[in-house]
Amino acid sequence: MAKKSSDVKERTHRMQEKVLEFLRDSGNIWYSCKRAGISRETFYTWKEERPFALKADNAINLGKSFVNDLAHTHLIQNIQQNNMQAVKFQLERCHPDYQTKNQKTPDSEFVPPITKLNIYTVPMKKTDEQI
Q1: In 73-98, which positions are buried (b, 16+ CB within 10 angstroms) versus exposed (e)?
Q2: Using one digit for the tens of pLDDT, what is the confidence trace for 7-34?
Q3: CA dist., res. 46 & res. 52, Å (int)
Q4: Do 60 and 23 contact (CB within 8 A), yes or no?
Q5: Rounded CA gap, 119 and 97, in Å?
Q6: Closest of 44, 40, 64, 61 to residue 53, by C-alpha
Q7: What is the pLDDT of residues 91-112, one digit of tens each?
Q8: How far does Cα 46 stand from its chain's mean position?
């Protein structure tokens, strides 16, 4: 007996919702596909359709934000517990007094000093009144 197209669509929709749920929790495509029981190829095939692509991108962003917040919470907890590795990590990345002196300034922030300035005059075009 052949599968009804409505059954396939319904099953696909359930699988898509499952992978979106895992994406909202993790922000990681590989992990979410594995948990949902689909291949990454299937995920990227689904992502070619705009409605699913928008939902997936939103879920990925939410998941990454959630994981970053969770990591930051654990960092703060470790700092409060006097974990010196966590303290050092935070200071080296966020406090200018503790950053290594040989760190390069990002190119977007670097402005070279002005060492020479050339000023040119442009001859004016004579008008009928000046002739």
Answers
A1: eeeeebbeeeeeebeeebeeeeeeee
A2: 999 999 999 999 999 999 999 999 999 9
A3: 7
A4: yes
A5: 41
A6: 44
A7: 998 888 888 876 555 566 777 7
A8: 21
